[in-house]
Amino acid sequence: AITARVRCWLPRTMSARWRFLMLLTRNVPKSAEFYRGGLGLTVTSLTETWAEIQVPGGTKLVLKQTDAEAMASTGYSPLITLDVDDLDDVVPNALQHGATLDGPIRHEPSGKAAALRSPCGHMIGLFETPTQQGAGA
């Protein structure tokens, strides 16, 4: 019998930091326009094949061009979830920019929630907490 010893080396302290979330799309400029116009996010870099979008709180969203059918196929993953100040303002604006609602807006004790699909098929959850509901009044 042959016995092999495998030693796995891991550093004693390992720190991972969030860099960005990348979404694949067939049309980067169209997707970037939706995130800018429909959701009010800031596009910081844009080419035909790559876009960088700043999300409040320090997160960066990256859009990357792909022509591969398997890579561009959309389902329910990933689901991007954003906190918004006024769901009743954001949803109609997103719909004007080509989004579609995926079910009704839900009114729950924990807040209002909506699921929508961007024009390029990305799933986006929008959530307004009760404190956010009272903040704008």
UniProtKB/TrEMBL annotation:
Gene3D superfamilies in the cross-refs: 2,3-Dihydroxybiphenyl 1,2-Dioxygenase, domain 1 (3.10.180.10)
Descriptive protein name: VOC domain-containing protein
Classification of source organism: Eukaryota, Viridiplantae, Chlorophyta, Pseudoscourfieldiophyceae, Pseudoscourfieldiales
Domain VOC: 17-129
PROSITE patterns linked to this entry: VOC (PS51819)
Family matches, as InterPro entries: Anthracycline_SecMetBiosynth, Glyas_Bleomycin-R_OHBP_Dase, Glyas_Fos-R_dOase_dom, VOC_core
Superkingdom of the source species: Eukaryota
